[in-house]
C-alpha cells in the first residue's frame, strides 16, 4: 500500500468507521498488488479511434486523384451517419447530470463521429468552399457539432475538440508548433482574446455549477482557462504595461489555487504553481534590472543556488500538502 492509502485506512479504523476485521481485510487485499486494466483498455480504444481517423485522412491524401472528391465525401458521410445512428440509438438523451453510456465503447464511437464530422466539414470547405470566403464558419460549424455531441452524449473528448475549435475560431492556435512559431506572441490582440476567452470559460463553469449542468465538465473548461490566461499574461510581462498583466496573473493564480483544492485536481494545482513561479521570476528579474543588479552581481550569484533549491523544496512541500489535504477530504 502507498503511504496515503495506509494513512487513510488507519484513520478510518481509528474513527470506528470500519471494524478491525475489515481493516485487516483491506490491508490484505491491497498487499496483493492487484491493479485494474480499465484505464489501459480505454487508452487502447482511444488510440484505435485516432488511428482509424488518421487512416482515413491518409487514405484521402494518397488516393484523392483516383477515388474522386464526391466518392470520398460520400464515404465520410456514410461512416459518420452510421456512427451517429448507433450513438443516438443507445443514448439516454440529454441530461443535466452525468449520463454516460452503459457500454463505454459507445463513448469512443461518439468521438469517432465527432472527428469524422470535423473532417467532412473541413474537406467540403477546402474543396468546394461551401461557406465561401467565410472561413471562420468552417471552424465554427464543427465546433457547434462538437459542443452538441459533448452535451447530448456526455462526452468529454468531444468537449475538448469543441473548446479547441472555439479557441481556433477567435484566432488562437493551441498546437505545440503554434506556441513556438505563430503570432500569439507577436500580436497583442490574440493575448487579449486568450484572456477574455479564459475568463468566459471560468464564468461558464460558475454558471453551470449554479444550475447543476454537467458539472463534471468544469475540469476541462478550467484547464483551458488556466493555460490561456497564464500563457497570455506571462507573454505580456515582457511588455511595457506588464504591471496590469502581473495583476491578471496574480488573480488567476489565486483563483485556480483555490479551485484546485475544491475540485480537487492535482494537474490544475501543479500548473498553477508553475505559471506563478515563472511569473514571479520574470518580475524578480525586472526588479533586479531596475535596481541595476550588476552592482550586486556577486551577491546575486551567491544567492541563486539557494533560491533554486528553496524553490524545489517549497514545490515538493506544496504537492505533499495538497495530496494530504485530498486524502483527508476523501476520508470525510
From TrEMBL:
Keywords: Membrane, Transmembrane, Transmembrane helix. The keyword Membrane applies. The chain crosses the membrane at residues 43-61, 67-88, 108-126, 132-153, 158-177, 189-207, 219-234, 240-257, 264-284, 296-316. Pfam families: DUF2157. Residues 11-158 form the DUF2157 domain. Coiled coil: none annotated. This is DUF2157 domain-containing protein.
Amino acid at each position: 500500500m502507498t503511504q496515503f492509502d495506509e494513512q487513510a485506512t488507519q484513520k478510518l479504523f481509528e474513527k470506528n468507521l470500519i471494524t478491525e476485521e475489515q481493516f485487516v481485510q483491506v490491508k490484505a487485499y491491497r498487499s496483493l498488488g492487484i491493479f485494474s486494466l480499465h484505464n489501459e483498455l480505454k487508452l487502447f480504444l482511444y488510440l484505435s479511434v485516432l488511428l482509424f481517423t488518421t487512416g482515413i485522412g491518409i487514405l484521402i491524401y494518397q488516393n484523392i486523384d483516383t477515388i474522386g472528391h464526391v466518392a470520398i465525401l460520400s464515404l465520410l458521410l456514410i461512416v459518420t451517419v452510421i456512427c451517429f445512428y448507433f450513438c443516438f440509438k443507445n443514448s439516454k438523451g440529454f441530461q443535466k447530470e452525468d449520463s454516460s453510456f452503459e457500454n463505454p465503447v459507445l463513448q469512443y464511437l461518439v468521438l469517432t463521429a465527432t472527428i469524422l464530422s470535423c473532417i467532412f466539414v473541413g474537406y467540403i470547405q477546402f474543396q468546394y468552399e461551401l461557406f465561401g470566403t467565410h472561413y471562420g464558419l468552417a471552424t465554427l460549424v464543427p465546433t457547434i457539432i462538437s459542443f452538441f455531441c459533448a452535451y447530448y452524449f456526455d462526452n468529454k473528448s468531444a468537449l475538448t475538440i469543441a473548446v479547441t475549435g472555439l479557441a481556433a475560431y477567435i484566432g488562437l492556435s493551441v498546437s505545440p508548433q503554434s506556441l513556438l512559431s505563430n503570432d500569439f506572441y507577436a500580436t497583442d490582440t490574440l493575448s487579449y482574446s486568450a484572456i477574455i476567452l479564459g475568463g468566459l470559460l471560468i464564468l461558464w463553469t460558475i454558471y453551470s455549477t449554479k444550475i447543476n449542468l454537467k458539472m463534471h465538465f468544469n475540469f476541462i473548461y478550467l484547464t483551458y482557462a488556466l493555460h490561456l490566461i497564464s500563457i497570455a499574461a506571462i507573454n505580456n510581462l515582457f511588455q511595457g504595461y506588464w504591471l496590469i498583466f502581473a495583476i491578471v496573473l496574480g488573480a488567476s493564480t489565486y483563483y485556480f489555487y483555490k479551485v484546485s483544492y475544491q475540485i480537487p485536481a492535482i494537474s490544475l494545482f501543479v500548473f498553477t504553481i508553475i505559471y506563478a513561479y515563472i511569473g514571479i521570476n520574470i518580475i524578480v528579474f525586472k526588479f533586479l534590472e531596475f535596481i541595476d543588479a550588476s552592482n550586486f552581481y556577486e551577491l546575486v550569484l551567491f544567492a541563486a543556488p539557494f533560491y533554486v533549491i528553496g524553490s524545489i523544496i517549497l514545490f515538493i512541500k506544496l504537492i505533499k500538502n495538497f495530496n494530504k489535504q485530498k486524502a483527508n477530504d476523501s476520508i470525510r
